[in-house]
Amino acid sequence: MSQSYNRGLIEDFGRWKEFSAGMWAWIFHKFTGWMLIGYLFTHIAVLSTSIGGAQGETTMVDGEAVNIYTATLQGLEGLFLVRLLEVGLLAVAVFHILNGLRLLMIDLGVGLDAQDKSFYASLVLTGAITVASVPTFLTGVSV
Amino acid sequence: MSTQQAEPESQEAPKDPEMQGAESPAAEKQKGGGMVDQTSTDASELEGETVHIKVFRYDPEVEAKQEPRFDDFHVPFEKGMTVLDAVMYARDEYDSSLTFRHSCRQAVCGSDAFFVNGKQRLGCKTQIADLEQPVRIEPLPHQEVVKDLVVDMDHFYDQMHTVEPYFQQEDLPDGELEEQRQSRENREKVKMSTRCIWCGACMSSCNIAAGDNEYLGPAAINKAYRFAMDEREDEEIKEHRLRILEQEHGVWRCQTQFSCTEVCPKDIPLTEHIQELKREAVKKNLKFW
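^ Those are the sequences you sent over. The predicted structure of the assembly is below.
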């Protein structure tokens, strides 16, 4: 046989427009999964200050000694960027939960005909919950 | 992306007198970008018009064609015209070097799976009138192109043969002329899975198969399902089939993207079958008696 032509990366990345609901669901599920794993590390890093905090360790904030755990949390929560990231984190977690339930149903062979509709429903519900959470996350923080 | 974005210079390969047909007023109208953006056309609207198709071209044996490109053809529309009819017209009337596989022209042989307007479809089963113009016709993605629309199917066939796609039964009935009966319920169960025509559309649409060359792929797993679920085969054979399927690159690679189910020209619920085999594999391994 003559040499054959391999179309290379165009096969894999140039075709995103041709993706279907199930493919997007898969990509979003992977992506949110990695995001949650990444968050877990920062989460543990922040919470680890409670070890020092429990032993009475302090740090200086505006000239007074504050418990290191409290200071860390208050410092982070005082940043607008962190509050914004929390909204994103909620969106990521909610989508991962809803799509996870969808995948559970698919694994059990339930409602396979509605797999695309359930993906859209997960997206819409994620959007609604995220929007509804904005006031809670962004009150009392100065930009 | 070179092949995709390179704006083809509308090179109707031969300068046939036939090509004059493409210069009809209707074609001019299309060329002038007068086509309204539409997902489907009313067939009666297309009557007497020409259809604009863009066909992927590549021929390693001709120096001028070693760089892949798209050729444009303007094919006179006829009622009921399929994508296959259009490329056949282009081949017969304009450029005899245009190469593609086809045989039965009625969705049975599975030869003419193309990538039409971003979706794997059978050329003979796809109505031109249902497609947005210009109709972009490419060889199946994720497979190596041999020439024009012909892809190398070897790997696909290898995967199909891996699952031993044939009926295996040791104990034949006693009577010389006695049939091997199957219950109606069991026939219903495997009915859809028997419809596979080995066209490779599902395998080509599967992202996992694209990234994992060892993955059996939806077609092969469906073929295995057809026999594993058939009550006329012995338990031992079923176990043997499940052992093949439950390997790392078997059913567990399926990420339930449903691409295969969406493109299958025979409407086989591939994902459903793969999921059922996953459950079978789990059940088999949970048995401790």
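The interface with chain B takes residues 1-7, 9-12, 14-15, 17-18, 20-23, 25-26, 103, 106-109, 112, 115-116 of chain A (CB under 8 Å). DSSP finds five helices and two strands in chain A.

Shout if you want it in another format.
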